[in-house]
Amino acid sequence: MRVLAAMSGGVDSAVAAARAVDAGHEVTGVHLALSRNPSSYRTGARGCCTLEDARDARRAADVLGIPFYVWDLAERFHADVVTDFVQEYAAGRTPNPCLRCNEKIKFAAVLDRALALGFDAVCTGHYAQLVDGPDGRELHRSVDPGKDQSYVLGVLTAEQLAHAYFPLGGTPKSAVRAEAAERGLAVADKPDSHDICFVADGDTAGFLARELGEQPGQVVDEDGSVLAEHDAAYAFTVGQRRGLRLGRPAADGKPRYVLSIEPVSRTVTVGPRDRLTVAHIQGSQPRWCGPAPTGPVECRAQIRAHGETLPARAWVEHDVLRVELAEPATGVAPGQAVVLYTGTRVIGSATIAATVPAAAH
């Protein structure tokens, strides 16, 4: 099998490529240049898109003895991931850029190009497992729950999974680092990347301010009383408690949380924590990691990358995914993804468009 190994410059993708070589595949390494100005992206432990990372990927490919190339996808990444991220916050939503990168870049732009060049699969260092089931390739959780990345892969379709290759899903991260050291890979002790690769200093609010400028508005309580002024509604997210800078405490003395964000009027509404509980989720653009269900499905729903799963019942109605939670969830923000599981298997996902409070439901 001809395999294109996406090599970020980190330990996971290097070991994944090595395992593909060991399996007897014809492997070619590729590093994705995603920054218009790589020196502006994070360096050292905090990055995954720097010039240093490209050099680390090339050195790993040299150790493995495989061909290596750099693909410039900076413009596509900026349009599909960075611009989408900014626009989502401007619209009062909370996006997940890693999920969008998997959907639009690694398993759309890269996979499409790989197939056109005659490759059979794209190999990555994601911690997830692929299992051949009765209805085709299935996506399952990693055996390492602390590193499991099936949530951010929940946007992949059956066709994309058929050409994906995740060699690390059955191995704990500690064992992957040990294997990298045994193979003589210099990235064995390289720290994992964190946060958002295109936010150079880790200051998301500052990044958005530079992109969108000041957009002042008001912070109000549920009856519309003005509590404070703010510089930008996009600096808030549903469920936020800290940094609200309210002019006066609540009558009961309890903390207040962001309940909703109205981007047109730039109004941020706050209230008590119990108003954040959600019983029903509506998701747009559902995507299925296999055959789409033909009726209601009993499953578990996950709404954060490393959050808990909740028992749920899900069905599609007029192209809208409806998820009824058996236990209320707190702080569910539009723009996040809801990913559905049966056991360890990912069924599919959707982008959260709206929620129904538990009390109203």
UniProtKB/TrEMBL annotation:
<dbReference type="GO" id="GO:0000049">
    <property type="term" value="F:tRNA binding"/>
</dbReference>
<keyword id="KW-1015">Disulfide bond</keyword>
<dbReference type="GO" id="GO:0002143">
    <property type="term" value="P:tRNA wobble position uridine thiolation"/>
</dbReference>
<keyword id="KW-0808">Transferase</keyword>
<dbReference type="InterPro" id="IPR046884">
    <property type="entry name" value="MnmA-like_central"/>
</dbReference>
<dbReference type="Pfam" id="PF20258">
    <property type="entry name" value="tRNA_Me_trans_C"/>
</dbReference>
<feature type="binding site">
    <location>
        <position position="125"/>
    </location>
    <ligand>
        <name>ATP</name>
    </ligand>
</feature>
<dbReference type="GO" id="GO:0005737">
    <property type="term" value="C:cytoplasm"/>
</dbReference>
<feature type="binding site">
    <location>
        <position position="32"/>
    </location>
    <ligand>
        <name>ATP</name>
    </ligand>
</feature>
<dbReference type="InterPro" id="IPR014729">
    <property type="entry name" value="Rossmann-like_a/b/a_fold"/>
</dbReference>
<dbReference type="Pfam" id="PF20259">
    <property type="entry name" value="tRNA_Me_trans_M"/>
</dbReference>
<feature type="domain" description="tRNA-specific 2-thiouridylase MnmA-like C-terminal">
    <location>
        <begin position="280"/>
        <end position="352"/>
    </location>
</feature>
<keyword id="KW-0489">Methyltransferase</keyword>
<feature type="site" description="Interaction with tRNA">
    <location>
        <position position="126"/>
    </location>
</feature>
<keyword id="KW-0820">tRNA-binding</keyword>
<protein>
    <recommendedName>
        <fullName>tRNA-specific 2-thiouridylase MnmA</fullName>
        <ecNumber>2.8.1.13</ecNumber>
    </recommendedName>
</protein>
<dbReference type="GO" id="GO:0008168">
    <property type="term" value="F:methyltransferase activity"/>
</dbReference>
<keyword id="KW-0819">tRNA processing</keyword>
<keyword id="KW-0547">Nucleotide-binding</keyword>
<dbReference type="InterPro" id="IPR046885">
    <property type="entry name" value="MnmA-like_C"/>
</dbReference>
<feature type="domain" description="tRNA-specific 2-thiouridylase MnmA-like central">
    <location>
        <begin position="207"/>
        <end position="271"/>
    </location>
</feature>
<comment type="similarity">
    <text>Belongs to the MnmA/TRMU family.</text>
</comment>
<comment type="function">
    <text>Catalyzes the 2-thiolation of uridine at the wobble position (U34) of tRNA, leading to the formation of s(2)U34.</text>
</comment>
<keyword id="KW-0067">ATP-binding</keyword>
<feature type="region of interest" description="Interaction with tRNA">
    <location>
        <begin position="147"/>
        <end position="149"/>
    </location>
</feature>
<keyword id="KW-0694">RNA-binding</keyword>
<dbReference type="InterPro" id="IPR004506">
    <property type="entry name" value="MnmA-like"/>
</dbReference>
<feature type="binding site">
    <location>
        <begin position="6"/>
        <end position="13"/>
    </location>
    <ligand>
        <name>ATP</name>
    </ligand>
</feature>
<dbReference type="GO" id="GO:0005524">
    <property type="term" value="F:ATP binding"/>
</dbReference>
<dbReference type="GO" id="GO:0103016">
    <property type="term" value="F:tRNA-uridine 2-sulfurtransferase activity"/>
</dbReference>
<feature type="active site" description="Cysteine persulfide intermediate">
    <location>
        <position position="197"/>
    </location>
</feature>
<feature type="active site" description="Nucleophile">
    <location>
        <position position="101"/>
    </location>
</feature>
<keyword id="KW-0963">Cytoplasm</keyword>
<dbReference type="Pfam" id="PF03054">
    <property type="entry name" value="tRNA_Me_trans"/>
</dbReference>
<dbReference type="InterPro" id="IPR023382">
    <property type="entry name" value="MnmA-like_central_sf"/>
</dbReference>
<dbReference type="GO" id="GO:0032259">
    <property type="term" value="P:methylation"/>
</dbReference>
<feature type="site" description="Interaction with tRNA">
    <location>
        <position position="336"/>
    </location>
</feature>
